[in-house]
Amino acid sequence: MNKNKSEKILIIHTHYREKGGEDIAVDEEVKFLSKFFNVETLFFSNKFNKKILQSLFLILNYNFFSVRKLNNKINIYKPDICYVHNTWFEGSTAIIRFLHKKGIKTIIKVHNSRLICCNSYLVKSHIDKGQFCNGCGQQRTNYQLFNKTFRDSYLKSFLVVRHIKKLLSYLIFYETTVLALGVFQKNELSKVGLNPNNIHIFHNYIKEQTIEKEKNKNDYFVYAGRVSEEKGVEELIEVFLECKFENLKLYIVGDGPQLNDLKNYYDLTDVYFLGSKNREDTLKIIRNSKGVLTFTKMYEGQPTVLCEASMLSVPSVFPDAGSIPSFFPPNYPYVFEQGNKDDFKKKLIDLNNSENLSDVGLDNKDFILGLLEEETLYIKFKKIVSN
Question: The whole model's pTM is what?
């Protein structure tokens, strides 16, 4: 395979104020693509260290300094391709317009559902059926008129929607190449006006981890992620306790707005809240568990924790939400109907009673390694950028 290290790729990303899954995915992708291409990065930060200027950029929906910084980088590095990730808010949508004006081949990866959920100011255009959005977790209230994607602020929500509407208009107008994490996400992006011929499925690269399993472990299930309402952590705990397993614990790894309340309410039970852990410690906890659980109410793109569990030969129980099932073998036995607690309980009991957990784990590992294999992803990426 001819790896053209002379082909220059500039990866552009705006880091979130608190490092999350998208930031980690970008870091991993930089390492991965650097094996095959000449890669440099241009990172922006959403930390408020220049409040007056940053507030002005938010109001204007345009960051002059980001464009100037990008222009300087391009003049020095002279990339063949610019690969954009998050543009909110420090990077700003201005970089997309600038790149197309410069005539530079540009692609953008969509990691979340913001393009789907924030394309309208009116909530009825967002949540048209039911009272809950599986894309962003927004709960519609009575007499609500405007889209409130930030629960604590209509102003922040207005600014996000304006940002997304501008970004979406640029992606449509310039026929930008868009990378989606799965078929489900591709279909949803098509519904908001993106040309499906310009949307390509390209998974996040995840490096295989080698962690030895400790002896005499396997006496707990684990949830690892944000402890919040839309992730369904409280429902997950309720179902676990209803199962009344003997000598089996539930570990909750992560932080979030519900952590303290749930920790206090479920004190003196078989549920243990471990708080936020670094990635290495989290993977060790997963490796020694009986299985990874999630009751997410969201449409997920690529479930990083579940993919990492599979790479460690650890089975998972998850809902048929968004693209999650596509990262597991066909006819996987431990997937349940999203939101159905009875179905979740049944699959959880089935997993606990299974005598072939090791086989399930190994099947998951073989599947995910094949799906996210380096050479396969390289060939796919090369084909996308060549077209």
Answer: 0.91
